[in-house]
Design goal:
Layout: H1 2-21, H2 26-44, H3 68-75, H4 78-88, H5 93-203
Helix pairs in contact: 1-2
Length: 204
């Protein structure tokens, strides 16, 4: 029925629009719209009557009965009914206290788990630092080995230099000895030459 009402109203409005704007076919559109509206009114005459809910079932005082608050008083207040339900379920103060203790223990365990997770993170960081330190020590040992090799090479070179110096010292002593011999020979030659000159001068 809602769909029928909607389409019928749309046709009526379209017919009225054509008539107001004096468009071509306005009379025909208006006739169609008004006829549709009349048909819809005829159909609505056969629509069943909408029945309202019986509110007296929810609110007895509407039917002249007692208010619902009085009935609640017969069964007790809400707190009394709740106490009765707890008693039937055998939920006493001891059980409630045990529940509170369990919740506190759960809270403590959660805090301990948080501390354990923090310790695990710190352990991971320590392991990472130890790995980096081991790598650094390995690099230092390699550098030490290179320095040791360089020192060994330097020591070998220094030994060869000392050997060369020793050889040069012996050669220098030999050179000094030869120079001494040469000086003595030159002295002898000078003496002989002087004697010759003296002898030649005496004969003159």
């Amino acid at each position: 029925m809602n769909m029928i009402y909607g389409f019928g109203a749309a046709i009526v409005i379209a017919g009225a629009l054509f008539k107001i704007m004096h468009w071509k076919g306005a009379d025909l559109m208006l006739i169609i719209g008004m006829a549709t509206e009349a048909g819809i009114f005829c159909i609505s005459a056969f629509e069943p009557v909408h029945m309202d809910p019986d509110w007296s079932l929810v609110y007895p005082e509407l039917a002249g009965g007692e208010p619902t608050t009085k009935k609640e008083k017969k069964g007790g207040s809400i707190s009394q009914q709740l106490d009765a339900m707890l008693a039937e379920a055998k939920i006493g103060p001891d059980l409630i206290q045990s529940l509170g203790t369990g919740l506190q223990s759960l809270s403590t365990n959660v805090k301990d788990m948080a501390e354990i997770s923090t310790a695990a993170i710190a352990t991971n960081e320590y392991a990472s630092s130890a790995t980096k330190a081991a790598r650094n020590m390995e690099e230092i040992s390699k550098s030490t080995a290179m320095v040791s090799d360089s020192l060994s090479s330097f020591t070998g070179g220094l030994s060869s230099v000392l050997n060369n110096l020793n050889a040069s010292e012996s050669a220098t002593s030999d050179f000094k000895e030869e120079m001494g011999k040469l000086n003595r020979n030159l002295g002898n030659l000078n003496q002989i030459y002087g004697n010759m000159l003296s002898a030649m001068g005496g004969s003159r």
